[in-house]
């Protein structure tokens, strides 16, 4: 799917400002940003529930979505919902096709119960299954783990990951829970004031952010000349910050071998949270 130069205004307020990105089937992308950044608006535009915008979206065939709370009928059972929404999409609901997913989401046992007896998390999970009934190529999920406890969130995210792979579905997920996003997404977009400020790849391998402080600029220059640990993010007269997959002990050993002395050394694991804090100003943005 190609999202090209999307601009959306509500009255005079520019909510999305020439925003572009593309995503493929089978890929899971995260969308993060402070309240009001424009995440839901972007998702509604992709899901085609909001019109009147500038720019274009190409290859939007068959998009399933769960945006805000799922629209459910309290007096109907979960199963009745699945039959009803399948019929709207022109399909018949074949339970066996969804059994593994329903079991994984622990919904199989409650499908005959009325939805008004469901917890918020159960309703969200039913909403996720409904978003998949049209055999979509892409699914847009706005804060899908809202109202879910930690165990349920993990379960749901793992099921989504499996489905993206098995059914070749492209999934766009927004959330303020950065750990959730990090656990399933291969790529994360940071949205601020209607534009993508930053795009981060999420790696399966551990990455570390390391800061080394030397006594003299000459020692720093020696280190920089010989190091092959990773990417240098910043440097000053006597210090350097780099991103590496090498563990701390190996960095120390390398510095020793060069015969130079470290004055100070800090390291932290690179997480989506600390990258977000660094780039977007962190806590004040509320993610
Ligand atoms: N229907 C609407 N009419 C007018 N303004 C709107 C409408 N929908 C959203 N907005 C405004 O657009 C901006 C972006 O809202 P949006 O819901 O897309 O943000 P968000 O990133 O999803 O926020 P949150 O994290 O709180 O869900 C906000 O300033 C909001 O007030």
UniProtKB/TrEMBL annotation:
<dbReference type="InterPro" id="IPR003593">
    <property type="entry name" value="AAA+_ATPase"/>
</dbReference>
<dbReference type="GO" id="GO:0005524">
    <property type="term" value="F:ATP binding"/>
</dbReference>
<dbReference type="InterPro" id="IPR017871">
    <property type="entry name" value="ABC_transporter-like_CS"/>
</dbReference>
<feature type="domain" description="ABC transporter">
    <location>
        <begin position="1"/>
        <end position="218"/>
    </location>
</feature>
<dbReference type="InterPro" id="IPR027417">
    <property type="entry name" value="P-loop_NTPase"/>
</dbReference>
<protein>
    <submittedName>
        <fullName>ABC transporter</fullName>
    </submittedName>
</protein>
<dbReference type="InterPro" id="IPR050763">
    <property type="entry name" value="ABC_transporter_ATP-binding"/>
</dbReference>
<keyword id="KW-0547">Nucleotide-binding</keyword>
<keyword id="KW-0813">Transport</keyword>
<keyword id="KW-0067">ATP-binding</keyword>
<comment type="similarity">
    <text>Belongs to the ABC transporter superfamily.</text>
</comment>
<dbReference type="GO" id="GO:0016887">
    <property type="term" value="F:ATP hydrolysis activity"/>
</dbReference>
<dbReference type="InterPro" id="IPR003439">
    <property type="entry name" value="ABC_transporter-like_ATP-bd"/>
</dbReference>
<dbReference type="Pfam" id="PF00005">
    <property type="entry name" value="ABC_tran"/>
</dbReference>
């Amino acid at each position: 799917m190609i999202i090209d130069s999307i601009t959306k205004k509500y009255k005079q307020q520019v909510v999305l400002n020439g925003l572009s990105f593309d995503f493929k089937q089978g890929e899971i992308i995260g969308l993060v940003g402070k309240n009001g950044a424009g995440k839901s608006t972007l998702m509604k535009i992709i899901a085609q529930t909001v019109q009147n915008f500038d720019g274009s979206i190409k290859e939007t065939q068959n998009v399933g979505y769960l945006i805000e709370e799922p629209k459910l009928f309290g007096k109907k059972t979960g199963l009745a919902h699945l039959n009803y929404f399948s019929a709207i999409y022109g399909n018949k609901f074949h339970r066996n096709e969804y059994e593994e997913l329903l079991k994984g989401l622990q919904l199989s046992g409650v499908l005959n119960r009325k939805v008004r007896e469901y917890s918020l998390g159960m309703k969200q999970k039913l909403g996720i299954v409904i978003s998949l009934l049209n055999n979509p190529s892409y699914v847009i999920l706005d804060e899908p783990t809202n109202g879910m406890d930690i165990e349920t969130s993990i379960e749901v995210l793992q099921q989504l990951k499996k489905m993206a792979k098995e059914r070749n579905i492209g999934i766009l997920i927004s959330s303020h829970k950065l750990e959730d996003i990090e656990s399933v997404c291969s790529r994360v977009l940071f949205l601020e004031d209607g534009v993508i400020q930053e795009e981060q790849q999420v790696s399966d391998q551990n990455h570390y952010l390391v800061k080394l402080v030397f006594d003299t600029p000459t020692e720093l220059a020696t280190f920089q000349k010989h190091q092959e640990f990773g990417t240098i993010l910043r440097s000053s007269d006597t210090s350097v910050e780099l991103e590496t997959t090498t563990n701390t002990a190996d960095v120390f050993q390398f510095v020793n071998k060069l015969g130079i002395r470290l004055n100070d050394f800090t390291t932290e694991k690179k997480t989506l949270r600390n990258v977000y804090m660094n780039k977007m100003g962190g806590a004040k943005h509320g993610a």
